[in-house]
Specification:
By secondary structure, the chain is of the alpha+beta class. Helices cover about 55% and strands about 15% of the residues. The chain is rod-shaped and about 145 Å long.
Length: about 325
C-alpha cells in the first residue's frame, strides 16, 4: 500500500477571507465552522457520516455528538491574540504589523486508500496532538475528519512564539514538518509506512509552463540587473563630475595661494624699502638740523592720508625731533632744530 503523508499551511485573518495571490482562504472563524461541521455541507463533499469525527480542544477530547461552544472558542482566541499584540509591542517597541495573520491552519492528510480501525484512529489523534504541542506549544484545536474520502486532520495554532516574541509563519518549512510528523508517528509505534507525498512526473504542458516561468524569471532578473548597472553608471558619472570640479577648485586654490604669497613678499619688500627711506631721511634731518625738509619728505609718504592722521604723524615727528635734540645736547651739540 502506497501511503503518502502531506501537510499544507494557511495564514488566517480572524473574521474575513485571506487572499494570497489568486487564491482565497477561509478566515479562522470560517475554518472553525467548517472543521466542526457547523456550516452547510455539500452532500457530495462528505463520503461518510460525521458522527465519528473527533476533536481536541484545550487538551480535552470531544466526539462529534458532544456540544462544542464555538463562540466561546472565538472569544478565547481573540483575547489571546490581544495578549500576543501586547507582548510583541512590549518586547519589540512597535505594534504588530496589520498584515500579520493571527492564526495558522494546517491540513494534514494521507493517501486516499489509507484507513485505520477505530481504536488506532484515536491513538493516532492523540499522537498528532502530542507532536503539535511539542512543536508549537499551545494548540487552539485539532480535528480528525473521518467523514471524507480519506482520514485527515485540521489543526490551528497561533502565529506567534512567546520565546522569541515573533510571528512564526515564515519560519515553518512544511516539507520538514511532514518528515517530522512521520518520524514522530514512528516513534509512537505507529509506523504505517508514511512518506512525504511528492509528484513522480510532470505533464508536458506543466513542464512547458515551468520552463516559461523560469525564462520569464531570468528575463526579469536580467532587467533588474541592467537597471542596477545603469544606476551605478549614473552614480559613477556624477561622482566623476564632482571629482573633476573639486580638482579644478583645488588647482585654482593652489594658484591663488602662490599669488598671495608673491603679493605678500612684494608688500614686505615695499614696506622695508619705504621704512629704509624714512630711516635715511630721519638720519638726514638729524644731520642737517632742519625740520622743513623732513616734513616735505614725510608728506610725500603720507600724501594719501587724511588730515587727522597727518597731524598725528607730525606730532610723532615733533616728539622724535625733541628726543633727537635732547640727545644731541647731551653729546654737546648746540645747534637746535
Amino acid at each position: 500500500m502506497n501511503k503518502k503523508l502531506s501537510i499544507r499551511m494557511y495564514k488566517q485573518k480572524m473574521n474575513t477571507l485571506t487572499k494570497s495571490g489568486n487564491k482565497t482562504y477561509k478566515s479562522f472563524v470560517q475554518q472553525l465552522l467548517h472543521d466542526f461541521r457547523f456550516e452547510e455541507m455539500d452532500s457530495t463533499y462528505l463520503k461518510r457520516p460525521s458522527e465519528k469525527n473527533k476533536y481536541i480542544i484545550n487538551n480535552k477530547l470531544y466526539s462529534s455528538n458532544e456540544k462544542i461552544n464555538t463562540l466561546e472558542l472565538q472569544k478565547q482566541v481573540q483575547l489571546e491574540f490581544d495578549n500576543i499584540q501586547l507582548d510583541y509591542q512590549r518586547h519589540n517597541n512597535k505594534k504588530f504589523h496589520k498584515q500579520t495573520k493571527p492564526t495558522l491552519n494546517f491540513l494534514l492528510s494521507f493517501s486516499k486508500d489509507f484507513d485505520l480501525p477505530e481504536e488506532q484512529r484515536k491513538q493516532q489523534l492523540e499522537s498528532v496532538y502530542k507532536f503539535i504541542q511539542k512543536r508549537f506549544g499551545q494548540v487552539i484545536y485539532l480535528v480528525q475528519h473521518n467523514d471524507e474520502k480519506a482520514l485527515h486532520y485540521s489543526f490551528t495554532i497561533y502565529n506567534y512564539d512567546y520565546k522569541t516574541h515573533r510571528p512564526i509563519a515564515k519560519q515553518i518549512d512544511t516539507s520538514k514538518l511532514q518528515d517530522q510528523i512521520a518520524e514522530h508517528l514512528k516513534s509512537e509505534g505507529q509506523d504505517y509506512g508514511h512518506t512525504r507525498g511528492e509528484p513522480k512526473s510532470i505533464s508536458l504542458a506543466k513542464h512547458r509552463t515551468i520552463i516559461e516561468g523560469k525564462v520569464l524569471e531570468a528575463e526579469q532578473k536580467e532587467k533588474e540587473l541592467q537597471e542596477k548597472i545603469k544606476q551605478l553608471e549614473n552614480q559613477n558619472k556624477e561622482l566623476q563630475e564632482k571629482n573633476d570640479r573639486l580638482l579644478k577648485i583645488t588647482n585654482q586654490y593652489e594658484i591663488d595661494i602662490i599669488k598671495l604669497k608673491e603679493l605678500q613678499e612684494e608688500a614686505q619688500a615695499d614696506y622695508e624699502s619705504v621704512l629704509n627711506e624714512i630711516i635715511e631721511d630721519l638720519e638726514d634731518m638729524a644731520e642737517q638740523e632742519t625740520l622743513d625738509g623732513f616734513v616735505k619728505k614725510l608728506r610725500r609718504y603720507i600724501k594719501n592720508e587724511n588730515k587727522d592722521r597727518l597731524e598725528t604723524l607730525l606730532n610723532n615727528v615733533k616728539k622724535k625731533t625733541k628726543k633727537i635734540k635732547k640727545a644731541n645736547n647731551k653729546r654737546g651739540m648746540n645747534n637746535p632744530l
